[in-house]
Design goal:
Blueprint: H1 13-38, H2 43-51, H3 53-65, H4 71-94
Helix pairs in contact: 2-4
Length: 95
């Protein structure tokens, strides 16, 4: 059987505050600011930074939650992103 989701009326005040923070500040305002700044950079640089979210999430998971990851894959992915960043910067310097 699938567990039933909690009813909205059973949420505590702290849980509502967390939902409000995540919905309004973390998602709404930060995405708005991201889009303002995204209009100011080259598409290649924006693509690299957008793809940087995943390795940053893995790194924070390793640092704060003690999870494990394959170091070779982590370093390989980081190297690919570093190369992409270098290419994006070089293309901007040429253009």
């Amino acid at each position: 059987m699938k567990p039933r989701p909690a009813a909205l009326g059973s949420l505590t005040g702290l849980q509502w505050a967390v939902l409000g923070y995540l919905g309004v500040l973390a998602s709404g305002i930060c995405f708005f600011l991201w889009n303002i700044e995204a209009a100011k950079v080259a598409a290649a640089m924006l693509a690299v930074m957008n793809n940087l979210k995943i390795p940053l999430a893995v790194a924070s998971s390793l640092a704060f939650f003690g999870e494990s990851a394959d170091p070779a894959r982590l370093l390989g992915g980081g190297a690919l992103i570093a190369i992409a960043l270098w290419i994006a910067r070089e293309r901007k310097a040429v253009a």
